[in-house]
Amino acid sequence: MVQGAAGSASSGRLGLSSLGSCLPSSCLSSGCYPSGFAGSGVWLCEGSFNGSEKETMQFLNDRLANYLEKVRQLERENAELESRIREWCECQIPYICPDYQSYFKTIEELQQKILLTKAENTRLLLQIDNAKLAADDFRTKYETELGLRQLVESDMNGLRRILDELTLCKADLEAQVESLKEELLCLKKNHEEEVNTLHCQLGDRLNVEVDAAPPVDLNKILDDMRCQYEALVENNRRDVEAWFNTQTEELNQQVVSSSEQLQCCQTEIIELRRTVNALEIELQAQHSMRNSLECTLEETEARYSSQLAQMQCLISNVEAQLAEIRCDLERQNQEYQLLLDVKARLESEIATYRCLLEGEDCKLPPHPCATECKPAGRVPYVSGMSCAPAP
């Protein structure tokens, strides 16, 4: 409808521009202009108005006929323009701003899924790292137990060697005892043979009595020696067993203390390694979270930047449209004021014409340009007017 108003205003300008052609030649030659543009209701010009009332009525009749014809023409043009504007508005598709809410919801759902997937990946990474730590712990324990087993096996091998040495020593002592027993038997046998030989030689011929000490009991002596050797062997065996037990206990104590220290050190190392791995995992999780948040921030900034650019573009378009509408309104207001001036002038002319027809005593100058031109103020410019004030 703005374009329709503009079309009507332009048609009104055409009607105003053609009014100048309805003036008499005397007015055109003397440089007159309508008084409606100067704020009065009569014609003002530089020349004089010469003629009768009949000529004035004829002039007003012609002007009224031209005015009515022009009004009908403007109405036809206005109706035609309104029909064109209506057809154009019906053909135009109204601009609908696309609704991105569904896309925003989909994007938010996808972002939530991405965050959940990242959290699940982080949890799986933590589980994998915990499994790795547990495997390292079991591997360390296995290596520790394997080292302890090797130490115990080496101790057992050393003890076996000592046992073999003691067994050999025992065998040597037993061999010595057997050799001494055999020597004792040989001595007894030789003694008996010698005694028998002497008895056989002497027989009953000689009876010798010897005042000597009682004979020595060799069996008793041998038994005593055997007891002494057995006691000595037993003492040696006990001493060796005591020394072996002492050395074994000391070695076991050293092994236990060393294993405890090693276990403590390994436990501390495992705890420190676990702490380091946990801190590294947490650092990686924080890095991944920071990267995801940075990506989300960049995506959000890009999305809102694009939305802001679209909004600014829409605002610029709306401001441009508002500026155009404001300019059109100002122009239409000016044209409306001009039309009001023309309407007032025409109404004054029609009133004058009515007064002349009714025969009232309306004194008019003898010619439309009889009075002196006195502009009452700034004369607005109307396009198409052929009359202008004389220099």
UniProtKB/TrEMBL annotation:
<keyword id="KW-0175">Coiled coil</keyword>
<keyword id="KW-0403">Intermediate filament</keyword>
<dbReference type="InterPro" id="IPR039008">
    <property type="entry name" value="IF_rod_dom"/>
</dbReference>
<dbReference type="GO" id="GO:0005882">
    <property type="term" value="C:intermediate filament"/>
</dbReference>
<dbReference type="GO" id="GO:0045109">
    <property type="term" value="P:intermediate filament organization"/>
</dbReference>
<dbReference type="InterPro" id="IPR018039">
    <property type="entry name" value="IF_conserved"/>
</dbReference>
<protein>
    <submittedName>
        <fullName>Keratin 36</fullName>
    </submittedName>
</protein>
<keyword id="KW-0416">Keratin</keyword>
<dbReference type="InterPro" id="IPR002957">
    <property type="entry name" value="Keratin_I"/>
</dbReference>
<feature type="coiled-coil region">
    <location>
        <begin position="163"/>
        <end position="201"/>
    </location>
</feature>
<feature type="coiled-coil region">
    <location>
        <begin position="57"/>
        <end position="127"/>
    </location>
</feature>
<dbReference type="Pfam" id="PF00038">
    <property type="entry name" value="Filament"/>
</dbReference>
<feature type="domain" description="IF rod">
    <location>
        <begin position="53"/>
        <end position="364"/>
    </location>
</feature>
<dbReference type="GO" id="GO:0030855">
    <property type="term" value="P:epithelial cell differentiation"/>
</dbReference>
<dbReference type="GO" id="GO:0030280">
    <property type="term" value="F:structural constituent of skin epidermis"/>
</dbReference>
<feature type="coiled-coil region">
    <location>
        <begin position="262"/>
        <end position="349"/>
    </location>
</feature>
<comment type="similarity">
    <text>Belongs to the intermediate filament family.</text>
</comment>
